[in-house]
Amino acid sequence: MRTLSQRLVRVISYFSTPRKMWFVLFASVLAGALLEPAIPALLKPLLDNGFNARKIPIFIVPLVIVGLFTLRASTSLLADVALAKIAQVSLRMLREKMFSRVNSASLRLYRDQPATTPMSLGTPKWLAEYTHVVPFNDLTVLTKLLEDRGTDMACLI
Fold this sequence. Notes:
Elements: H1 4-15, H2 19-35, H3 38-49, H4 60-103, H5 107-112, H6 125-131, H7 139-156
Helix pairs in contact: 2-4
């Protein structure tokens, strides 16, 4: 069995491929973090000196605050989009590899283990006899199943 670090290295190789998006993600997170203290720094002189000092024009303050919030929201959105793109590209690569393995599997595997038989260990053996014969529109088989194993079915749910 592989160790945790071996499994992480194997998975990280898929997520490290879209390097441009990683750069965009880190740059936008850094920009958002740098903009975080800008609003309190802008409001401090106004609160300390009051609005009568006339050093900062009063109409500029709301514009700058709205602009900073817009910039922070834009960086957050850009980080979310970059993270979604990383996940999309990485999962596509994982799926392609998985389906290439399914396509290259021997046809004998599908013949010996058809999808209609319950092969999982969690499926009760008595349920296997009903899985082959239950059509969607045949209510007699469904009622027979509920009469025979109704309490077992309730336990499964």
